[in-house]
């Protein structure tokens, strides 16, 4: 067969063969369970809880020992239906009690020191799994620098994800304390702004040892709002009422319900702080 005849035969076969479609690489071809819009919303009960560290009550006649108070706190968490909590002041002995059986923590009390567990995040293992964890550092009292935990959790039922940060700013008085808190706020803001491009909801919990300055800095320099209300826009910074030193902030897409400061009753046997609690719904479309 001549070369010309061979080429004609090959072209004829190609033209008569059925076309094989090429897969389109766009969002619509992705598996449905990986598309954020297809995931159902999820509601989560959150709290920021300064549990009053064991080191503060070792010699006290007015308070139970830290482990005893942690047992009471664990029952309180269960009764409140909480599934994610930012803790402050928790010592290793307390965190071991709090995370027994149903809870997990970062940092783990089995591998961390008291100054590390003093700022921690705990979550119900039946509802959330840990995907990622890291820390950033802020100045604290007496020249210390403490690590603040950041975790990325995934809901086991819906696969929705959330960033959670727990912060404890310095309680030191005077000019040095003001400086430490100013630096701490700035580093918190920097961390939030670093996470914002991930487009996952962010929640910040903490004993901030501050009121207006905390609210105006966080809501003015990030895209977070306070679960307790207030606003910060072109008309100025308007704080919520009441304000305590313990805060919960979160991304604007989160729907907040039933915010309140829990105080009195069983909490009086656990801590000297009021405890902010709220229900946050992730992924609900706003109308």
Describe this structure as you would to a colleague.
- By secondary structure, the chain is α+β, with helices and mostly antiparallel strands.
- The chain has a single domain, classed as Deoxyribonuclease I, Chain A.
- Helix content is 25%, strand content 32%.
- The protein is built from six helices and 14 strands.
- It has a six-stranded mixed sheet. It has a six-stranded mixed sheet with strand order 5-6-7-8-12-9, with helices on one face.
- It is globular.
Summary tags:
globular; alpha+beta; 287 residues; six-stranded mixed sheet; 6 helices; Deoxyribonuclease I, Chain A
Give the CATH topology: Deoxyribonuclease I, Chain A
What is the global morphology?
globular
Summing up helix and strand content along with how strands pair, one would put the structural category as alpha+beta
How many beta-strand elements? 14
Distance between the termini: 72 Å
Question: Widest sheet: strand order?
Answer: 3-4-2-1-14-13
Rg for CA atoms: 25 Å
Q: In this structure, how is the largest beta sheet organized?
A: 6 strands, mixed
Order of helices and strands: HEHEHEHEEEEHEHEEEEEE
Top-tier CATH class = Alpha Beta
Mean pLDDT: 89
CATH A-level architecture: 4-Layer Sandwich
Counting structural domains, the number is: 1
- Going by CATH, the homologous superfamily would be Endonuclease/exonuclease/phosphatase
The fraction of residues in strands falls at: 25-35%
Q: Bin the helical content.
A: 25-40%
Which residues form runs of ≥5 with pLDDT under 50? 10-35
Summed up, the helix count is 6
């Amino acid at each position: 067969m001549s070369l010309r005849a061979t080429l004609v035969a090959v072209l004829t076969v190609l033209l008569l063969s059925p076309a094989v479609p090429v897969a389109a690489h766009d969002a619509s071809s992705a598996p449905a369970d990986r598309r954020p819009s297809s995931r159902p919303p999820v509601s989560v009960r959150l709290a920021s809880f300064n549990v009053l560290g064991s080191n503060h009550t070792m010699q006290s006649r007015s308070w139970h020992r830290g482990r005893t108070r942690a047992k009471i706190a664990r029952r309180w968490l269960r009764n409140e239906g909480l599934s994610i909590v930012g803790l402050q002041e928790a010592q290793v002995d307390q965190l071991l009690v709090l995370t027994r059986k149903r809870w997990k923590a970062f940092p783990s009390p089995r591998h961390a020191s008291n100054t590390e567990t003093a700022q921690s995040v705990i979550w119900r293992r039946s509802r959330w799994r840990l995907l990622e964890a890291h820390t950033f550092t802020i100045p604290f009292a007496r020249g210390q620098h403490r690590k603040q935990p950041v975790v990325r959790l995934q809901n086991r039922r819906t696969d929705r994800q959330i960033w959670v940060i727990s912060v404890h700013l310095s309680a030191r008085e005077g000019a040095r304390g003001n400086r430490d808190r100013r630096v701490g706020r700035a580093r918190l803001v920097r961390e939030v702004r670093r996470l914002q491009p991930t487009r996952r909801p962010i929640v910040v919990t903490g004993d901030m040892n501050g009121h207006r300055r905390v609210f105006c800095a966080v809501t003015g320099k990030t895209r977070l709002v306070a679960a307790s209300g207030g606003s910060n826009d072109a008309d100025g910074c308007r704080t919520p009422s009441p304000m305590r030193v313990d805060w919960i902030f979160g991304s604007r897409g989160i729907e907040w319900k039933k915010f309140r400061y829990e105080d009195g009753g069983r909490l009086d046997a656990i801590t000297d702080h009021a405890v902010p609690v709220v229900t946050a719904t992730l992924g609900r479309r706003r109308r």
